[in-house]
């Protein structure tokens, strides 16, 4: 039996309310905007931890959507105030900047419930315990566990 676990590498930061929910969703970006240009646009509001522009997997062309994670929530709030509804260089329409939706506890609980009641589940306690631990790692790890156990 082989287990594969994937995780993101991120900066070590203290856990506090000041850094929670500092991830922004940006839509309406010009298709020609690069990740570097996106970071330049947002960097005036604070320290950027991660940034990403979504691209079409087949064509490699930008979808005009991106994510920016700031070091602190207050920085993200300032970026929303300063950039939401503005036209960045190269844009013909204003961009939308808002907080990204985070998976809720209800979503995680629904996934756990489906795992627990799955007919393919072979290991009652360990899976439930592993899935419960995976909540802190996010939905993707929980789903990974579910896929792994249901494929056996």
From TrEMBL:
Keywords: Repeat, RNA-binding. Transmembrane segments: none annotated. One of its GO terms (molecular function) is RNA binding. CDD domains: RRM2_Hu. GO terms for cellular component: ribonucleoprotein complex. Residues 22-102 form the RRM domain. InterPro entries: Hud_Sxl_RNA (IPR002343), Nucleotide-bd_a/b_plait_sf (IPR012677), RBD_domain_sf (IPR035979), RRM_dom (IPR000504). The keyword Cytoplasm does not apply. PANTHER family: EUKARYOTIC TRANSLATION INITIATION FACTOR 3 SUBUNIT G (PTHR10352). This is RRM domain-containing protein. The lineage of its organism: Eukaryota, Metazoa, Chordata, Craniata, Vertebrata.
